[in-house]
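Friendly challenge for the regulars: who can give me the structure tokens for this chain first? No prize, just bragging rights.
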Amino acid sequence: MYDIIVIGAGPAGMTAAIYARRASKTVLVLEAVTYGGQIINTPDIENYPVTAHISGFDFSTKVYEQAKDLGAEFVFEKAVEIRDENGVKTVVTPKNAYEAKAVILATGSENRKLGLENEDALVGRGVSYCATCDGNFFRKKTVAVVGGGNTALEDALYLADLCEKVYLIHRRDSFRGEEANAERLKARENVEFVYNSNVTRLIAEKRLKAIEVTNRLDGSVRTIELNGLFIAVGRVPENQNFGSLVKLDESGYVIAGEDCHTNYEGIFVAGDTRTKALRQLVTATADGAMAATEAVKYINNL
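First reply, four minutes later:
Bragging rights claimed.
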């Protein structure tokens, strides 16, 4: 029996573990893949207080080591269900079942796909969702990035240093990401912007060879020959396994306010997986601290 089980080892989940351990609560962190979450793939974090530049990998590793040193236990298994029996929460994985007095959901999100034919089959054959993971394979080649948020802009900047040509394709005529990143891209001679457009077809033999891009305003279709396509069109929250207990909005995010309380007693939520106006590293860690603090209060009042 743990005091708190944290589901997810991204910045929110690991920060929750730190705060829970500092309150002398026993903590188990369950993570399906590896620690770090989405931020682990960011090459350079520039907007987190205290440090002007740090890689996502280094940041995540430091937080992980801090939580471990404080005594948080990490188990790399995917949580597939939460059961509640007389106030005891049982978190089920394909291998085991773990009990706790409180649960913090910090599941983050997964890559949103374009939904095109052969998209899954071409992953690793020209299609990627992680520029920092796969960008080096396309050194001095031609690639495209799809998206208009911070991730897409950061991916395009990273690839512009490696690739001969980078197309940045966005369905609108302006970006949702930070203006500073957009201005940096506009200064790159090897970056071409393709506005008001969607990728509508992947052209491939054994590997991706080209894409068809359709203009949303006039319906014109353009074929762009390239070697790689990096998709950065957002994330999908990974809450489907817990919707029977906690309320989700129409997009699948856990409905919760700044206090990180869900509708279900003893279950809290932190990070990108909850309804919120701003999804950034700093808000994820803030959520982790808040969720752990509220979980500790809940346990102390049992």
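The CA atoms of residues 149 and 177 lie 4 Å apart. The mean pLDDT is 95. Your move, everyone else.
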